[in-house]
Amino acid sequence: MYQNRSARDGFLRDNAEAVYSALTGGFTRFVRLEELVRLAAEAYPGLVPTQAELAADAARLLKDKQGLEIDQSLLVSHFLAHPRCGTHLCHAMLLPRPEAEAVLATLDAQGFADVGPVRLKRFGRAVHLLSSNARYLNAEDQGTIDAMEIAVDAAILDPGSDIAVLRGEPVTHAKYAGRRIFGSGINLTHLYQGTIPYLWYVQRELGFVHKYFRGVATPDAVPDDVNGAGVEKPWIAAVEGWAIGGHCQILLTMDYVLAAHDAYMTLPARKEGIIPGAANLRLPRFTGDRLARQLIQAERRLECDSPEGRLICDEIVPAADMDAAIERTVAMLTSSGAVGATGNRRAFRVAVEPLDLFRRYNAVYAREQASCHFSPALIHNLEQNWGAKSRLA
Q1: Ranges of the chain with pLDDT below 70
Q2: Looking at the DSSP assignment, which residues form a beta bridge with residue 45?
Q3: How far is CA 231 from CA 153, 280, 345, in A?
Q4: Same domain, 122 and 265
Q5: Are residues 381 and 338 in the same domain?
Q6: Which of the residues 234, 237, 246, 269 has an alpha carbon 20 to 30 A from that of 129?
């Protein structure tokens, strides 16, 4: 039935709604992206790779993979492109994960919770989400994505706080030991080693990054800000060291960005050969189209303490004063109560990025990122610009 990729694409073009409906019990069940592709492999043999096929391919370096996951991208893209299916899938991915309940209980009881590469800690009426992948300069990879989303859920749902702060922990890398680093984007070593699957990209955008921006949903209301609203908090980002790639993307979802005077931002998508998440959608709102293209396509670096950097960063502070700046900003943003802050978030959002625009963007992103992920150009870029071969150990 699906002799080749073109046949699979054609089938989904005509039958996406029927397939999605069958996998979700007629739209009565919310199924996360990761589970959706597994169910599709079982219900429609040959449409997407099976778990066994993916497991056999998982041990290979990225350059040696067979590109099986491209078929997953067709499925996800067609679902997102369909208004009803795509909205339902976005809704499913915005629901809090069940694992967050235990984390939330610990945070509520102790004011602190350890989620592996992420820690949550209350400071007064603020909850701090502290990311840590110390060996890799707080980069993101397959080992951080689930923990991050669970921690974001818990931070948003935490009844003991009115606002959340995102900050990087000190790293252990010999060159930067003891320094706080906001984040280094995707773990390029793991990307080259093939341990970051294609679905990681889409899970990230539809999951915790979207939750920074839109909060967590409830099952009974479409999270489109018009017909229903979920649970959310304002977010403050504290940029120390640098915000590279995916961490620069995250800044575009924040309500207020504090940056150390010596920090910088880059979106090295051209050098890597991938699409920088939803930055293509969001960045022009901050910088204008020309500068956005320079950042994404010409790897321009922005010092946070520059006229261009201040288009993204709200306030520049001396690095040694970051703790005090965070405390002051928390007080400023919550002085009139959390209700007004949340209402203003929704009002801004519905004007600049309604859910339907987000859905349509990610339908394109889901398809195009797969082509980038399995492109020989990506391997070449990693070997030439990252020295990936020397990092296999």
Answers
A1: 1, 338, 386-393
A2: 48
A3: 10, 26, 12
A4: yes
A5: no
A6: 269
Side chain identity, residue 25: G
Strands of the 264-266 sheet, one edge to the other: 242-244, 264-266, 302-303
Q: How far is CA 7 from the centre of its chain?
A: 31
Burial of 26 (0-12, 13-18, 19+ CB in 10 A): exposed
Query: Are residues 19 and 141 located together in one domain of the fold?
Result: no
256 Cβ contact list (under 8 Å, min separation 6): 234, 235, 236, 237, 314, 315, 329, 333
Write down the pLDDT at residue 207: 98
CATH number at residue 26: 1.20.58.1300
DSSP state of 389: G
For residue 103, give every residue at least 6 positions away whose Cβ sits within 8 Å of its Cβ, in sequence order, or none.
113, 115, 120, 150, 151, 153, 154
Q: Which CATH number does the domain housing residue 110 bear?
A: 3.90.226.10
Helix axes 5-23, 83-94, angle to 10 degrees: 60
Q: Are 138 and 18 part of one and the same domain?
A: no
Same domain assignment for residues 231 and 364: no
Q: Is 264 helix (H, G, I), strand (E, B) or coil?
A: strand
pLDDT of residue 174: 84
Do residue 301 and residue 373 come from a single domain? no
Under 8 Å between Cβ of 60 and 80: no
Q: Residue 173 is part of which domain span?
A: 100-352
Phi and psi dihedrals of 336, rounded to 5?
Answer: -100, 10
Q: Is the overall model pTM greater than 0.85, yes or no?
A: yes
pLDDT reported for residue 255: 96
| Distance, CA of 100 to CA of 112 (rounded, Å) | 14
| Residue 64: how many other CB atoms lie within 10 Å | 10
Name which of 93, 312, 358, 76 is nearest 208 in CA terms.
93
- Looking at the fold, whether 56 and 174 belong to one and the same domain comes out as no
